[in-house]
Amino acid sequence: MRIAMIGTGYVGLVSGACFSDFGHDVVCVDKDASKIDALHRGIMPIFEPGLDELVARNVRAGRLAFTTDLAEGVKGADAVFIAVGTPSRRGDGHADLSYVFAAAAEIAGAIDRATVVVTKSTVPVGTGDEVERIIRETAPEAEAWVVSNPEFLREGAAIEDFKRPDRIVVGAEDPRAAEMMREIYRPLYLNKAPLLVTSRRTAELIKYAANAFLATKITFINEIADLCEEVGADVQDVSRGIGLDGRIGAKFLHAGPGYGGSCFPKDTLALLKTAEDAAAPLRIVEAVVKVNDARKRAMGRKIIKALGDDARGKTVALLGLTFKPNTDDMRDAPSISIVQSLEDAGIKVRGYDPEGMEQARGLMPNVELCASPYEAAAGADAVALVTEWDALRALDLRRLAATMAGDVLVDLRNVYPPEEVAAAGLKWSGVGRGGRL
Ligand code: NAD
């Protein structure tokens, strides 16, 4: 199959590279020339484990190419995937669909045969109908079927997720389009990945419902963590105690600083807007969004409290700035709100992240970014672990303590046993471990 991937970001580049690895012939298109130039030089525009090797292998095999020219990329394609961004629209939180609609119009003008146009971007219910309308209006003679195929990969584990997904969802209104999608994904469901064919609107909603449910699970355990702190219980044991119940499941039950990233915050907001417009309010998701927003700044206050009286003028080192490990993505990372609340309280912030510092630089201009966790901790009154990168999970706490001016370790990911922290001469503060305080 010949595939064109429009948008070569976290989703488009990983999906395109994986499709080519299955033997399809793939052209990845992006209008950002710097990304395409970098890819031509073998440099990945994003950090994703294993991606450079996967891309290099398929470029060498002649199955994967990159261009800024959409018409050239789409020429001869059996399927054109739209994987452009759908950020929150400024002001009202609706998904901004302008990139999707612009891509649809360009695709309509470029397709030269019966083509499946597949929306892989996360888009609100009904977007497929609009994409279809745009294609019909732009190129009435074009033969195109519009399909929804939401993506569920996680940054940091994207290749494995794409190649071994829990499920593939295809929303198609035409059986021939569904058959083409089966063909494209055949190498995957031979791996036993269930392929679920639904109506287009249903597929669009599945993606939002999945993300909202996961965001709810995280927020639920975060509120339970707050309760644990008040009543002397340990949230890690509560998580284990409920997660072993097969109906609940252990994943997404780790208390922390609140969810962030490029998907959950914007997708929960967009789902609320869809629900509001449909006069079918989702009150649970409304509460999740409010609770999570408040939590990020509350984590800043937790650090300030741990510093004791008169925090103003003190220095805090934040370790791990990206919204989760193994990505350089800083979009809506909780660290951004934490930095803001610390700076609002007159605290000087230093920071370290294994991969996210380049993106962090523009988002937290007053933070002094350091070359290592120990350098960030040097002279700090408190150190806070914000993101649990592997490289930050086994720090030499005595070395850390020796370089600090103060003696506070705030562990927002509950990585370090309080006894070890105390043995290193540091005062410990964690999340939801009331029995341990
Ligand atoms: P991204 O910002 O990393 O990449 C989008 C790319 O599209 C950019 O490089 C941009 O230059 C390009 N683009 C925009 N308009 C274009 C056009 N007309 N022609 C060619 N290129 C164009 O975004 P992302 O994180 O890959 O997300 C893409 C979509 O996938 C979003 O809808 C997102 O919600 C969804 N999604 C993301 C993830 C994730 O983990 N990042 C997971 C699942 C779904």
Through-space gap between termini: 59 Å
- Contiguous low-pLDDT stretches (5 residues minimum) are none
At CATH's second level, what is the architecture of the largest domain?
Answer: 3-Layer(aba) Sandwich
Major sheet attributes: 6 strands, parallel
Which ligands appear in the coordinates? nicotinamide-adenine-dinucleotide
Structural class computed from helices and strand pairing: alpha/beta
Radius of gyration in whole Å, from Cα? 23 Å
Give the overall average pLDDT.
96
CATH topology of the largest domain: Rossmann fold
What's the helical proportion of residues? 40-55%
Number of alpha- plus pi-helical segments: 17
Q: What is the number of beta strands?
A: 14
Write the layout of secondary structure elements.
Elements (H helix, E strand, L loop, with lengths): L1 E5 L3 H12 L3 E5 L3 H8 L10 H10 L3 E4 L2 H5 L4 E4 L15 H13 L4 E5 L7 H12 L5 E5 L9 H6 L4 E4 L3 H15 L5 E4 L1 H32 L3 H9 L20 H14 L5 H24 L8 E5 L14 H11 L3 E5 L4 H7 L4 E2 L3 H5 L4 E4 L11 H7 L4 E4 L6 H6 L3 E3 L8
Parallel strand pairs: 1-2, 1-4, 2-3, 4-5, 5-6, 7-8, 9-10, 9-12, 10-11, 12-13, 13-14
Helix pairs in contact: 1-3, 5-6, 9-11, 9-12, 12-13
The chain binds nicotinamide-adenine-dinucleotide.
Which properties best describe this structure?
437 residues, alpha/beta, Rossmann fold, 2 domains, six-stranded parallel sheet, 14 strands, 45% helix, binds nicotinamide-adenine-dinucleotide, NAD, UDPglc_DH_bac, EC 1.1.1.22, UDP-Glc/GDP-Man_DH_C_sf, oxidoreductase
Molecular structure report:
The protein is an alpha/beta fold. The protein folds into 2 domains: 2-198, NAD(P)-binding Rossmann-like Domain (Rossmann fold, 3-Layer(aba) Sandwich); 264-436, NAD(P)-binding Rossmann-like Domain (Rossmann fold), CATH 3.40.50. Helix content is 45%, strand content 14%. It has helices at residues 10-21, 33-40, 51-60, 70-74, 98-110, 127-138, 158-163, 175-189, 200-231, 235-243, 264-277, 283-306, 334-344, 357-363, 373-377, 397-403, 418-423; strands at 2-6, 25-29, 64-67, 79-82, 115-119, 144-148, 168-171, 195-198, 315-319, 348-352, 368-369, 382-385, 408-411, 427-429. Helix 1 crosses helix 3. The model has no long low-confidence stretch (mean pLDDT 96). The protein binds nicotinamide-adenine-dinucleotide (NAD). Nicotinamide-adenine-dinucleotide (NAD) binds next to helix 1 and helix 5. NAD(+) binds at residues 30, 35, 86, 122, 155, 266, 331.
